């Protein structure tokens, strides 16, 4: 079975799978497309490792993973994960922060967006039917672990088309949730 390095949250072992997301793949997520074009397309935004002890979609199982989001911004928006709701919407999830600083951005079915601050040791329960995305607001990589049901799945399309109702922006050096459509000063 794999092992966890608790200094970083990283997973080790032959069963571990990995994926990486670059700015080039995700630049349309960001408010400021023009600024995204100023950074190299191969800029790493985040990497994910996970252990799937059973196949995706199996009812009653659990997956374990970890994510590392690099520090940086596109314009005033922090590097962040794509964000998703679970394809099986009634599946919940735990996140816990290992290192770094950031925010868990949550949006329920009422489309109200809220944040929970992430710092080492913070433990976050993502309720069912709740879109979730993480932004790195710090100067070093943000590292967190996650545990979720093996039949939760991912719906990215809803985020790509409708997005969250608010974005986490650097406003005068302070991470601030700014409603989509409101003046951005
Ligand atoms: C699994 C989960 C995390 C994320 C990971 C990357 O349900 O929430 O493992 O998949 O943090 O974020 P996304 O999937 O939004 O690119
Ligand atoms: Zn999830």
Report on the architecture of this protein.
By secondary structure, the protein is mainly β. It has one domain: Jelly Rolls, CATH 2.60.120.10. 9% of the residues lie in helices and 44% in strands. A 6-stranded antiparallel sheet has the order 3-4-5-13-8-11. The chain has a 3-stranded antiparallel sheet with strand order 10-9-12, with no helix packed on it. The chain has a two-stranded antiparallel ribbon with strand order 1-2. Strand 6 and strand 7 form a beta hairpin. The longest helix is centred in the N-terminal third of the chain and has 6 residues. The N and C termini lie far apart (51 Å). The relative contact order is 0.21. Zinc ion binds next to loops.
Which helices and strands, and how do they pair?
Blueprint: E1 3-5, E2 10-12, E3 17-22, H1 23-26, H2 33-38, E4 44-51, E5 62-69, E6 73-74, E7 77-78, E8 93-99, E9 102-107, E10 113-118, E11 123-126, E12 131-136, E13 142-149, H3 157-162, E14 166-171, E15 174-179
Antiparallel strand pairs: 1-2, 3-4, 4-5, 5-13, 6-7, 8-11, 8-13, 9-10, 9-12, 14-15
Bound molecules: fructose -6-phosphate and zinc ion.
Fructose -6-phosphate (F6R) binds at residues 48, 65, 67, 81-84, 93, 132, 146, 148, 152, 154.
**Count of structural domains:** 1
- The chain-level structural class is mainly beta
Output the number of helix runs. Answer: 3
Per DSSP E runs of 2 or more residues, the count of β-strands stands at 15
Query: CATH H-level name... which superfamily?
Result: Jelly Rolls
Largest sheet: 6 strands, antiparallel
Distance between the termini: 51 Å
CATH architecture: Sandwich
Bound compounds, each kind once, are: fructose -6-phosphate, zinc ion
CATH class: Mainly Beta
Determine the CATH topology. Jelly Rolls
Q: Strand sequence of the main sheet, in spatial order? A: 3-4-5-13-8-11
Percent strand equals: 35-45%
């Amino acid at each position: 079975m794999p092992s966890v390095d608790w200094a970083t949250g990283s997973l080790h072992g032959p069963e571990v799978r990995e994926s990486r997301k670059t700015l080039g793949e995700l630049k349309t997520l960001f408010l400021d497309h023009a600024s995204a074009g100023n950074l190299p397309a191969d800029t790493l935004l985040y990497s994910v490792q996970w252990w799937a002890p059973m196949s995706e979609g199996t009812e009653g199982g659990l997956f374990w993973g970890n994510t590392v989001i690099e520090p940086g911004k596109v314009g005033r928006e922090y590097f962040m994960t794509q964000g998703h709701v679970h394809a099986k919407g009634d599946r919940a999830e735990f996140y816990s922060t290992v290192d770094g600083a950031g925010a868990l951005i949550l949006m329920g079915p009422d489309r109200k967006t809220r944040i929970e601050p992430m710092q080492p040791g913070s433990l976050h329960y993502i309720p069912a039917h709740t879109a979730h995305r993480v932004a790195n607001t710090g100067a070093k990589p943000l590292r967190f672990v996650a545990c979720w049901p093996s039949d939760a799945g991912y719906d990215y399309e809803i985020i790509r088309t409708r997005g969250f109702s608010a974005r986490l922006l650097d406003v005068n050096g302070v991470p601030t949730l700014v409603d989509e459509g409101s003046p951005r000063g």
